[in-house]
Structures are given as C-alpha cells and as structure tokens.
Amino acid sequence: MKVAVLDINGKETGRKADLSDAVFAIEPNNHAVYLDVKQYLANQRQGTHKSKERAEISGSTRKIKKQKGTGTARAGSIKSGVFKGGGRIFGPRPRNYSFKLNKNLKRLARKSALSIKANEKSIVVLEDFNFESPKTKNFMAVLTALKLDNKKSLFVLGGSNNNVYLSSRNLKGSEVINSSELSTYKILNANQIVLLESSLEGIESNLSK
Are residues 121 and 166 in the same domain? Predict the structure, then answer.
C-alpha cells in the first residue's frame, strides 16, 4: 500500500511510503480487537473499591428483640444489612481486574486496528520533524496544517523526541507516543493516526513477527 508522505505544512513531499499489507491490509479480527481493548481498560481500573460488611460495622451485638411472637422476621443484630446503618450485603472488595492475553492475539489486534484505520483513510505519513524547544504553539501549527486541530489525533514517533512530546502535552485532543507504545485502544480512540517515517520500520518489525 502506497501512501504520500507529507511535510509539517501539510504539503506532499513527492515521496511515497510503502505500508506493509501484512500489517495495514489484513482482514480485521473483531474479537481480538475486543479482547485487547477490554484488557487495556481493565488494567486502568484501580480496584480499590471497598464497603464495610456486617463483621466490620461498629455496633452492639445485643439481640434487639425476642425470637418469636413479634409477627416479623427474626433479627439477631443491629449490624445486619437489612437495617439502616448496618453492613453492606455482598459489598465490593478490593480486587485486581487485569487478565492475561497471548502476545500473538495482541499483535493480531493491533494489526486489525491499523487495517481498520487504513481502510477508513485515517492514516497519514509525515516526514520526521523536530522543534528547537518545546512550544505548544509550534505543535498547534502542525495540527492546523494537517487539519487536525478539531480532531483526536495520535502521533507515532520512531524514537524518543522530548521537544515534540512536551509541545503536545497540554493538548487534550492530541497524543504523542513512540512506536513501541502503540496499543489497540489508542489506535481506535483517535480519529486520525499520524505516522512519522521513522516509526514505520519499528511498527512493521514489531507486528510482522
């Protein structure tokens, strides 16, 4: 798959980038995508929720009324969950929501997500660029030139670039990551994927295994 390479002004450079069909043009596996996104979201959960149950409530253990003859149900403790101020019945407890997925499935999910974006014409290849110093204004100029200032965008760098990363950090609608940090959720969550030329080799080598 051939894609035109753009510069930071949104103009074509005259060069074409060759996107591997094994990564960007496969038949998407929707179930693999679902599992990978589910795992990503599950890993974001802290799992620190907790409510006090009957044994943890502070209160008297005196039997509050006689066993028989009241015409109502038996009651042995004011800490029972059926009374106001009692413990929570089967309340939430701290737990770990993460679960395991095989590497091959996660790789398939990322290739499926990239293929979906490629099919939607939502992938742009940009020539490598850098800033002399971190400035949000400079990054906004790039977004405006690419007509991404009102869209969610994901910039994928080939390696660490502190100036570009820091220039984008204040912008809610745009995220800058390295090719090694690419995930299915981040791909699908963005309206437009911007791949820098230097990132293509890393992406294809990671996902072509």
Answer: yes
Q: Do 178 and 159 form a contact (C-beta atoms < 8 A)?
A: yes
Structural domain containing residue 80? 47-96
DSSP 116-166: HHHHTT-EEEE-----SS--HHHHHHHHHHTT-TTS-EEEEESS--HHHHH
Residue 41, phi-psi category: left (phi > 0), alpha (psi -120 to 50), beta (remainder): alpha
91 and 117 assigned to the same domain:
no
Q: How many CA atoms lie within 13 A of 70 on its CB side?
A: 9
Final residue of a structural domain among 96, 116, 134: 96
Q: Do 82 and 72 have their domain in common?
A: yes
pLDDT per position in the chain (209 positions), as tens? Answer: 888 999 999 898 888 998 999 999 999 999 999 999 999 999 999 999 999 999 999 988 899 999 999 999 999 899 999 999 999 999 999 999 999 999 999 999 999 999 999 999 999 999 999 999 999 999 999 999 999 988 999 999 988 889 999 999 999 999 999 998 999 999 999 999 999 999 999 999 888 76
- From 37, 70, 96, the end of a domain falls on 96
Same domain, 85 and 104: no
Number of domains in the chain: 2
Amino acid at 86: G
